[in-house]
Amino acid sequence: GAVVSQHPSRVICKSGTSVKIECRSLDFQATTMFWYRQFPKQSLMLMATSNEGSKATYEQGVEKDKFLINHASLTLSTLTVTSAHPEDSSFYICSARGLADLYNEQFFGPGTRLTVL
Amino acid sequence: QQQVKQSPQSLIVQKGGISIINCAYENTAFDYFPWYQQFPGKGPALLIAIRPDVSEKKEGRFTISFNKSAKQFSLHIMDSQPGDSATYFCAASHWGKLQFGAGTQVVVTP
What we know:
Helix content of chain B: under 10%
Helix content of chain A: under 10%
Order of helices and strands of chain B: EEEEEEEEEEE
Number of strands of chain A: 11
Number of helices of chain B: 0
Radius of gyration of chain B: 13 Å
Oligomer: heterodimer
Largest sheet of chain A: 7 strands, mixed
Structural class of chain A: mainly beta
Shape of chain B: globular
Shape of chain A: globular
Number of strands of chain B: 11
Distance between the termini of chain A: 37 Å
Radius of gyration of chain A: 13 Å
Largest interface: A-B, 24 and 22 residues
Distance between the termini of chain B: 37 Å
Largest sheet of chain B: 6 strands, mixed
Strand content of chain B: over 45%
Order of helices and strands of chain A: EEEEEEEEEEE
Number of helices of chain A: 0
């Protein structure tokens, strides 16, 4: 099956710093990638949708200047959390969908645990 | 505003028993209904999915039942095993965007 990786798997940073998370589709070309955030014991909440070569579309309530998304190639999308604060601590998960996927199936990465001190 | 409502919140079932999780939705534009399994600290993994033109789909021990008129769908896990202990999420998709249910934590006791 299709494999999606994320790097790093966990990161700890100081308040006020920026953190970049990478999402890669390893064996298929991902025309669309999605970024989710999941707080403990809660569901996945979609943050943004990115299509290769175009600007990301953010969900209501998600600050686009704080969560910068770049989808520069068909296999790589990055999420940068700028000026991170403790309330940004969460589990960030990406997913990817290929062009040929007729059933809208998304393949999820393993997630990145962000802890902001 | 939860567009997909999932119940129960948690479930304890004995090994060999049946786990049943229910979901309901309002938006009739949803056209793809997947179920995901998530273990602690991991990303969700697709378990089984169904489209609204099908009323039932079975893959191994997992079955989705879909009732389009009632706007409900459910996951049945037959012969539950301790390795099935995880959190299960239903979801519904429109234009490729997934809306997730709140999740059900399933514990299978030996």
